[in-house]
Specification:
It is built from 13 helices and five strands. The chain is α/β, with parallel strands linked by helices. It folds into three domains: 74 residues, Arc Repressor Mutant, subunit A (Orthogonal Bundle); 60 residues, no CATH class; 195 residues, Ribonuclease H-like superfamily/Ribonuclease H (Nucleotidyltransferase, domain 5). It has a five-stranded mixed beta sheet with strand order 3-2-1-4-5, with helices on both faces. Strand 4, helix 11 and strand 5 form a beta-alpha-beta unit. Helix 3 packs across helix 4.
Length: 406
């Protein structure tokens, strides 16, 4: 060792070389850890290794397992990932013991023993499943602060002394573990029509009839040689609102959209009564101040004059009071037999009415942000939109599960 001092690394090298000579053989072969990685696990490991949102520890361990899968050398993997070979060995040991995906997570630490017992957690969760007003609180929904306060005050009385000092954050963790969110409301729809399935089937049968008539324009029915099928509904509460200051047009480089003052003036509301001929796409409509029985009868009279006298008119509509009133029934009773047939959609089944899609499109394309100086102007603009539609009618079709038997 001329020209430099004899270092500790040299001592280790000579000691290992001497051990090899004394053993009379070569160094022991490298042990390769067999990892059973499925195609699914491999794809998930690759996704985690590229992730920018996963915890750094999971990304690092995923990279270790992927590199070892390609080159089973702890030293080479350590150099590639930037960790020691002992870290690689520990990761491999966890992968062979607990599984590849489980090895990405930390082992549970012993930590401090839980002070809140399982019975106290159950009591707290059951408390969260009640409404605060049942316990004489003015609140409609729980807040975690109120829940923690109630647990501290009444928990010890219920035999859970461990809740006497419970913090708001602990309450949040317990509720999160049980997937309980008493501070949120999610709405559902109660079934209020016992004959929902039968009425839905009747509506779908009418849509099937429309599909048959549209597919074969020469089809003739013995009972009804001429049939018109109309989807009808009202859209009330269309507001006539005017600006108190002029709108400002877009200016490139200044503001990209129309600028509008926050203040406005109300002039009242209008109701749109509309029905779509499902065979031709023609829209029958009237714009009224209200939508009572007399307005509905006036709409029926308008539809009556639009079709020949020998045409049977089927109307799909909801159970609004104006549709079943005495005035409406009296007018229908004066019409020839088979002239008008009402097919009522079930209660809470407005989604079955095709005209709802038409109203949605109209609200998004015409009525959204509309400004009119008066109700007369608003009515004129709505009718102008409908006239423009009738120049090139769009046929509305029902497709959802129509092919399935009802």
């Amino acid at each position: 060792m001329l020209g430099r001092e004899f270092t500790r690394r040299d001592c280790i090298w000579y000691r290992n070389a001497d051990a090899i000579r004394q053993g009379g053989g070569m160094a022991a072969a490298r042990k390769v850890v067999e990892l059973s990685i499925t195609e699914k696990d491999l794809a998930e490991l690759q996704s985690i290794a590229r992730s920018r949102t996963e915890p750094a520890s999971r990304v690092e361990r995923a990279r270790i397992l992927l590199h070892y899968h390609e080159d089973p050398s702890c030293y080479a993997v350590g150099r590639e990932v930037g960790v020691t070979h002992q870290t690689v060995q520990r990761c491999l040991l966890r992968a062979t013991t607990f599984g590849v995906m489980t090895a990405l997570d930390d082992s549970p630490r012993p930590g401090k023993e839980r002070e809140i017992t399982a019975e106290a957690r159950v009591w707290l969760v059951s408390l969260a499943c009640q409404k605060p007003k049942e316990l004489r609180y003015p609140h409609e929904l729980w807040t975690t602060r109120l829940l923690a306060q109630h647990a501290r005050e009444h928990g010890p009385k219920a035999g859970h002394m461990c809740l006497s000092r419970i913090a708001q954050g602990t309450v949040c963790k317990i509720l999160a573990d049980e997937e309980v969110k008493p501070h949120k409301v999610r709405y559902y729809l109660e079934k209020r029509d016992e004959d929902f399935e039968e009425k839905m089937a009747e509506v779908l049968c009418v849509y099937q009839e429309v599909a048959v008539l549209r597919a074969d324009s020469k089809a003739k029915f013995k009972a009804h040689p001429k049939v018109a099928i109309i989807s009808y509904d009202e859209k009330p509460g269309i507001q006539a609102i005017s600006n108190t200051a002029a709108d400002l047009p877009p200016v490139p480089g200044v503001h990209p959209c129309i600028a509008r003052d926050h203040e406005y003036k109300r002039h009242g509301t209008l109701s749109l009564l509309a029905g779509i001929d499902l065979r031709t796409g023609h829209v029958h409509a009237s714009v009224e101040d209200r939508h009572r029985s007399r307005e509905f009868v006036a709409f029926l009279q308008k539809v009556d004059t639009a079709y020949p006298a020998d045409t049977a008119i089927k109307i799909i509509l909801d159970n609004h009071s104006a549709h079943v009133s005495k005035e409406t029934k009296r007018w229908l009773g004066a019409q020839p037999d088979g002239r008008f047939t009402f097919v009522f959609i079930p209660k809470h089944g407005s989604w079955l009415n095709l005209i709802e899609g038409f109203f949605s499109k109209m609200a998004r394309s015409v009525l959204r942000g509309i400004r009119a100086a008066s109700k007369a102007e608003l009515k004129q603009r709505i009718l102008a939109y409908l006239e423009d539609l009738n120049r090139a009618p769009v046929i509305h079709k029902w497709r959802y599960k129509l092919a399935q038997p009802v």
